[in-house]
Design brief:
By secondary structure, the chain is mainly α. The longest helix is centred in the N-terminal third of the chain and has 29 residues.
Length: 280
């Protein structure tokens, strides 16, 4: 019997497109839960003025737009769509605890800028990944599906934030901590839900690459479990340290900064190592 289903049926959509759409939905829920409350939080809790709110938001959005220009070029040069998108989503997710522990406008500005850098980095490689995964006759529908799920997340985020604020008597910090959960879920889904395995040969065989190529085969069988575990454990450790710092004011602020940046560096290193191991 001839198949009469429409050519753009959602049933024909590759699983990877659905994964990228749900990733966008979860990250938008996480981001909008915070961003919808941020101006009010800055004014009523941190004591910032309206000019400061405008400066923070203007710098953040401008930075995201500038980074997008370079992330697309970098994505084409590296030819590693998932790795770059994963870094952008992970950076955005890891900034969420900073909003929950921000004691002043300076920390909040840092978190906001890093969050928008993550958004700028992930946008172009994610869209290129959609184009790579989707068949030519479904490409328009694939972009529409991902953007639709993204919009649903942007709608649900503020709605959930308002509901939790009513439920918890305007507890900004509690809502910000809840926003961490969908952000981490988005990173985990992208990490495990999209499989890429393109072999990339660098233009120059550096000493580091040659040494890596000699050692990597010894780690081949356990690479996925080890690296995925390292990435996820780094993220959980980061959240735990941020929560600990919030409830232990005796702990030196400088020490907390060193610990958090150290964990962030470990996450970045693990992500890069996992990306290299997948090329073999």
């Amino acid at each position: 019997m001839m198949d009469t289903s429409p050519p753009h049926s959602l049933r024909r959509m590759p699983t990877g497109i659905w994964v990228l759409g749900v990733v966008s939905l979860l990250m938008d829920i996480s981001s909008e839960m915070i961003h919808s409350l941020l101006p009010l939080f800055m004014v009523t809790t941190l004591g910032a003025g309206t000019i400061a709110v405008g400066i923070v938001e203007g710098l953040a959005e401008s930075l995201a737009l500038v980074v997008k220009v370079f992330s697309g070029t970098l994505s084409d040069y590296l030819r590693r769509r998932k790795g770059l998108a994963l870094f952008g989503y992970a950076l955005g997710a890891l900034t969420k605890p900073l909003f929950a522990i921000a004691p002043d406008i300076g920390t909040l500005l840092t978190a906001r800028l890093l969050d928008r850098v993550g958004k700028g980095v992930r946008g172009a490689p994610r869209d290129a990944l959609v184009a790579d995964i989707a068949p030519a006759h479904l490409r328009g529908a694939a972009f529409g599906l991902r953007q639709s799920l993204d919009t649903v997340g942007a709608f649900l985020g503020p709605l959930l934030a308002v509901g939790l604020m009513l439920l918890w008597a305007d507890d900004f910090w509690a809502v910000f901590w809840v926003a961490v959960i969908p952000g981490m879920m988005a990173v985990a889904l992208l990490l495990f839900g999209i499989i890429t395995g393109t072999l990339i040969i660098p233009e120059e065989l550096t000493v580091n690459y040659i040494v890596f190529m000699m050692v990597a085969p010894l780690l081949f069988t356990a690479r996925t479990a080890v690296m995925n575990g390292l990435i996820l454990s780094s993220m959980l450790l980061y959240i735990g340290l941020a929560f600990f710092a919030q409830h232990n004011p005796i702990l030196s602020k400088n020490l907390v900064d060193v610990i958090l940046y150290g964990v962030l560096s470990m996450l970045l290193t693990a992500t890069m190592m996992r990306s290299k191991l997948q090329r073999i």
